[in-house]
Specification:
The complex is a heterodimer.
Chain A lengths: L4 H10 L14 E12 L15 E13 L2 E10 L12 E12 L3 E8 L13 E2 L4 E2 L2 E11 L2 E12 L2 E2 L3 E10 H4 L8 E13 L12 E13 L2 E10 L14 E12 L2 E11 L43 E12 L11 E11 L31 E15 L2 E13 H4 L7 E14 L4 E12 L6 E10 L3 E10 L8 E12 L2 E10 L2 E5 L2 E5 L2 E11 L1
Chain B lengths: L1 H13 L26 E7 L6 H15 L3 E7 L17 H10 L3 E2 L1 E4 L9 E2 L4 H9 L5 E10 L4 E10 L7 E9 L2 E2 L2 E2 L7 E2 L3 E2 L2 E5 L6 E2 L10 E9 L9 E9 L5 E8 L2
The chains are: A mainly beta, B alpha+beta.
Chain lengths: ~550, ~270
């Protein structure tokens, strides 16, 4: 483990790479940001919330980045004292898990320490940070990026991945190359069609000490991609292949994995069309074969549905099934022109979306081996086959309409079919069918003052039944946001009616944001890779402070 | 220059793939250990009756038991959300010791386990699929202590008298703590199992269930902070069994761990009666 990456990088800069005397001139600058989230927890038997022995829990971090010429160095201090409910308690504690130094010239860039990286769309490698989800799989090691010729970009990296305040067992090695034909070949530079192709290879190493299985210690994955753009048309595709990688995720089967991703779009003023397809087979890829939930993921398998910010839209969220899924998505956006029949004075935006995700066809290898039996090849599958089990289906229709200079509205209808058992890794719940309707009306009372009313309904005969939500937000731009919302679960034969009322006040001043609130949050259970986590219901005060400098 | 470097890297990387051919399972020849004391390993399995993936960790304990015999000692700790009793799962198997261990190790996902309280990447907790590796690594170590348990059970007052003789097989210069736990086997009550339809198993046989920590969750310190090779210590405790427990299915587990880093040096198990 690198105890002093800053020092190590500094020494390298001065000696080994012969950078001495190169340009790190100019004014040095320090930038950063921090965020503190705290919540108190009180007992509330009506929603099943419990108190915590600490009374108050806190998640906080601060980034400090120093730049001088081509030189950048930074640290992130994080503190989880103790970890807020809903996040992994393995975070408990504090320290500096993220520290790096990098040097950049026109030709190359070298980074020592922690860094984030993505190859192509991420099918074989993507490290990123998403604090609200408790995800941070940053690499800690060395990375070199270079451009030996114009239009050609190469990246090479070796590192271990962040695991809470330490690093995971596995070593990840990766290279990626990309060529932009229009930049590389002068003949093509004036052409309207832009073509980029790229390829990646990633290999992970983890020792095999397992007494039961004979495990591969080096597991490689490769991917190729091509992006074409011609005026309003865009085509993006990536294919990835991974060799035998028995893991907690795939139940220790030795089958190879495959993934295919295709996105096409057409967009011009007032019209946008999007078509996407995704096929995944046994593509979970982590630097520790026993890692679970979101820990130590090397690759990223995107979800194919359209993300919404509405609470009721996220009641039954799709979750990518790395062990196998076939997804299709289509979306049409159209703007009715101003002064037309449907456009009115300001024009009207409408969006029609559809997506469907099913399983893939998995066949038994022979009569004696059950599908996905540990210690076997698991099953056989043919490329791009669609199974008969539906995981998720959604039809959505959205209208954005400005009625007059002070009234802006958004309406959304969604019809969701949600395979609860598959998407939450459980059994016994079956399918959930839900209708979601949202009406969002913003009334601009004056240049700075606005009142926003959000109404959301979720109608379902399954699971917890029907939900109603009202949200009222009064804002005095750019300083004050006062919000109160109520989520009410009407209940059914299995669940009692429950009410989740929350209010908050936010104040923004010169890049800093202060927010205090009080309310209730509902519970949830989610299972990934053979383990389940309960996000408990809670009742308490929240305090959130963030700032950038 | 950069071109050649990147070419070299690519060549190096493509070499790093291990394609494993069948058989995928390791071949084992059981070694019978004839020494007086052998290294044993303690698995603390965090579980719950409503945890649908937890039977997989129970199976893993059984699998390791078949592989290593009585060198593997297990404690099933029912705790957290999935152990909260409901109308369908009325039994409450949570214990004070279990709850304290759950908080200490930071268990938020189930199933989860701790093997001899050794850490990997700064964490005690390991998914059950990783247990095999850690158990085999721990068992490969030479025993530093030997424990001999002698139980005598009085059925009239349901009292078990436990006597543990600890023998030092090497000299140890740091404070050790000794814990006495009681577990119960063969408790039949419902368990959720996501691999079955329906997922509620009414007659599930719960094994290794933690019932109590006789001398507290963290045990007690040995009288001295330093012992030489060959020295012995005796620690004795007695405990009145709860009337609900079946004394014929109860075990006493004794383990010693280092106060400095919590690592368990040795564990032993013996039937109460």
């Amino acid at each position: 483990m690198m105890r002093h990456p800053l020092l190590a990088a500094g020494l390298l800069l001065l000696s080994g790479l012969g950078l001495k005397g190169q340009d790190i001139s100019g004014e040095g600058q320090l930038h950063g940001n921090f965020q503190i989230d705290m919540q108190s927890y009180t007992e509330d038997s009506s929603i099943g919330a419990t108190k915590v022995p600490e009374y108050v829990l806190m998640n906080a971090y601060g980034n400090f980045v120093y730049t001088k010429g081509g030189f950048t160095a930074g640290v992130r201090y994080e503190a989880y004292l103790n970890t807020m409910l809903g996040y992994d308690a393995k975070y408990n504690g504090q320290g500096i898990p993220h520290k790096f130094a990098s040097y950049k010239t026109d030709e190359y860039e070298i980074t020592a320490g922690s860094f984030y990286e993505q190859f192509g769309s991420g099918l074989v490698l993507r490290s990123y940070e998403e604090k609200t989800l408790g995800i941070d799989n940053a690499f800690n090691g060395f990375r070199i990026k270079g451009s030996p010729y114009k239009g050609i970009n190469l990246t090479g990296l070796v590192g271990k991945q962040r695991y809470f305040f330490d690093l995971g067992q596995g070593i990840v090695r990766g290279v990626d190359g990309e060529i932009n034909f229009n930049e590389t070949f002068t003949k093509l530079s004036a052409k309207k069609t832009m073509i980029t192709i790229g390829g990646s290879f990633v290999s992970k190493f983890q020792a095999d000490k397992d007494p039961v299985y004979n495990l591969p210690e080096n597991v490689g994955a490769a991917a190729g991609r091509m992006n074409i753009q011609n005026g309003p048309f865009a085509f993006m595709s990536e294919y990835a292949y991974k060799i035998n990688d028995p893991s907690s995720d795939n139940n220790y089967i030795y089958k190879d994995g495959q993934a295919m991703l295709v996105n096409t779009s057409y967009s011009k003023k007032g019209l946008g069309i999007l078509l996407a397809a995704k096929w995944l087979d046994n593509m979970s890829y982590r630097s520790d074969r026993n890692a679970t939930i979101t820990n130590l993921q090397i690759n990223y398998l995107p979800a194919i549905n359209k993300p919404y910010t509405w609470a009721m839209s996220n009641m039954y969220p799709f979750a990518t099934q790395a062990n196998g899924e076939f997804g299709l998505q289509g979306e049409i956006m159209y703007k009715f022109k101003k002064e037309s029949l449907l456009g009115g004075k300001y024009g009207t935006n409408v969006t029609l979306g559809y997506c469907r995700v099913t399983d893939i066809e998995k066949k038994q290898i022979n009569d004696t081996i059950a599908i996905s039996e540990p210690g076997t090849l698991g099953y056989s599958s043919d490329f791009a086959t669609m199974g008969s089990n539906r995981y998720y289906e959604e039809i959505s229709f959205e209208v954005n309409k400005k009625i007059n200079s002070s009234l802006i509205t958004t309406f959304l209808y969604q019809n969701i079919s949600y395979n609860y058992d598959i998407l939450r890794g459980m059994t016994g719940h079956g399918m959930v069918y839900a209708h979601v309707a949202v009406a969002d009306v913003t009334w601009k009372m004056s240049k700075t003052k606005a009142l926003r009313l959000e109404q959301e309904y979720l109608i379902s005969k399954q699971d917890h039944g029907n939900w109603v939500m009202y949200l009222l937000e009064y804002s005095v731009a750019p300083k004050w946001f006062i919000t109160i919302w109520d989520q009410y679960n009407l209940g059914n034969d299995h669940y009692e009616a429950k009410n989740y009322l929350t209010g908050s006040v936010a104040f923004i001043h010169k890049g800093s944001r202060f927010q205090v609130g009080y309310g209730r949050q509902r519970e949830g259970v989610i299972c990934v890779g053979g383990v389940c986590r309960n996000v408990p219901a809670s009742n308490g005060f929240i305090l959130s402070i963030s700032s950038t400098f | 220059m950069l071109k050649y470097v990147s070419f070299a890297i690519i060549v190096l990387l493509f070499a790093s793939c291990d394609k494993v051919q069948e058989p995928f399972l390791e071949n084992h020849s059981q070694n019978i250990d004839t020494a007086t004391y052998v290294k044993k390993v303690l698995i603390e399995d965090f579980t719950g009756a409503r945890c649908g993936n937890c039977p997989r960790s129970h199976e893993k304990i059984e699998e390791l038991g078949e592989l290593y015999g009585d060198k593997v000692i297990a404690i099933a700790i029912h705790s957290g959300y999935f152990a909260i009793p409901t109308a369908d799962y009325p039994a409450d198997y949570r214990t004070t010791a279990g709850n304290e261990l759950t908080t200490f190790f930071g268990v938020t996902e189930y199933p989860n386990g701790v093997i001899n309280r050794v850490q990997d990447a700064g964490q005690y907790l390991q998914a059950y699929t990783a247990w095999g590796s850690t158990v085999s690594a721990e068992l490969a170590l030479a025993p530093e202590l030997g424990i001999k348990i002698t139980n005598s059970y009085n059925s009239t007052n349901r009292t078990v008298s436990i006597s543990a003789d600890v023998k030092f097989l090497t000299s140890i210069d740091e404070q050790l703590k000794i814990c006495f736990y009681i577990t119960e086997d063969s408790i039949v009550s419902p368990q959720t199992d996501y691999s079955l339809t329906p997922n509620k198993v009414d007659n599930y046989v719960h094994m290794h269930m933690l019932r109590t920590a006789v001398n507290g969750t963290w045990g007690e310190s040995l009288p001295l902070a330093s012992y030489a090779l060959g020295e012995t210590v005796n620690v004795s405790r007695s405990y009145v069994l709860n009337p609900v427990w079946n004394e014929n299915h109860c075990h006493v587990i004794v383990y010693l761990y280092k106060e400095s880093d919590n690592v368990i040096l040795q564990a032993e198990e013996k039937k109460v009666n």
